[in-house]
Specification:
Elements: E1 20-30, E2 40-46, E3 66-69, H1 70-78, E4 84-88, H2 98-107, E5 111-116, E6 130-134, E7 159-164, H3 167-180, H4 182-185, E8 187-192, H5 199-209, E9 214-215, H6 219-224
Parallel strand pairs: 2-4, 4-5, 5-6, 6-7, 7-8, 8-9
Antiparallel strand pairs: 1-2, 1-3
Length: 231
């Protein structure tokens, strides 16, 4: 996918060279979320995010990072031996070089997941990418940032995630699901905000709702703890 020259300026006003990006960390772990939970996965965590959700667990990605080329990122991931890779952040779509990066992995035969906040246009990603897109309930503090046009670009292989703080968030998410008939479009994930919503409470609400959704827990946090990076 080729973008016009002006697109080489990212959301933070930084000029990037083709095939390079700022990377917070690359690591190999057990996938903790989505329908791919439990599988060995390589993670590429890009730097920067335009949002500041109240429950964010990756504030360390907001600045800094190491400049890396597409070749350098791919070489690091290849050393792990897995064929499942997730590009995350921060907000990975805030850096334009995410597109050649995902396409390189796809052409090498990888299954590529991109986890995005849902605040930026997802339509430019290669159709082979599996997009795991948030829709931000009121409790996130960023309900206003949802890019509702993204729903029209969803494919059956994509997944939509709601991070739930309280019953208000849950009811809001149920209304959105019904309004857009989301469970007929994609897999819908409900995730309790760590330390703010008890999984048992969210499970009860899901059962009462009768909706065909999937309750997910952040598996990596239960294995290694909530404050450990690189897992």
């Amino acid at each position: 996918m080729v973008f016009p020259e002006e697109s080489k300026i990212d959301l933070y006003g930084r000029k990037s060279n083709a095939g390079s990006m700022r990377v917070t960390e690359i690591f190999y772990s057990i996938q903790g979320e989505s329908t791919y939970a439990g599988r060995p996965c390589a993670f590429v965590r890009l730097t920067g995010c335009p949002l500041r959700c109240i429950w964010c667990d990756s504030e360390y990605t907001f600045s800094g990072g190491e400049p890396m080329t597409v070749d350098e990122v791919v070489q690091r991931v290849q050393s792990y031996g897995t064929t499942l890779v997730e590009i995350t952040g921060g907000e990975p779509l805030a850096q334009k070089d995410v597109y050649p990066l995902t396409e390189r992995f796809l052409d090498l035969g990888y299954t590529v997941l991109v986890e995005t906040s849902g605040s930026l246009d997802i339509s430019h990603l290669d159709p082979r990418v599996i997009r795991i897109m948030d829709l931000k309930p009121p409790g996130s503090g960023h309900e206003h940032a949802n890019r509702w046009e993204n729903i029209d670009h969803l494919r059956p292989t994509d997944e939509v995630k709601f991070v739930i703080v309280d019953r208000r968030d849950f009811d809001w998410a149920c209304e959105v699901i019904r309004r857009y008939d989301l469970t007929r479009r994609v897999t819908v994930l409900f995730s309790p905000a760590w330390g703010l919503c008890h999984p048992r409470e969210l499970a009860a609400w899901v059962l009462q709702s009768g909706l065909n959704v999937r309750l997910q827990l952040q598996l990596h946090k239960y294995i290694w703890g909530p404050d450990v990076r690189g897992v």
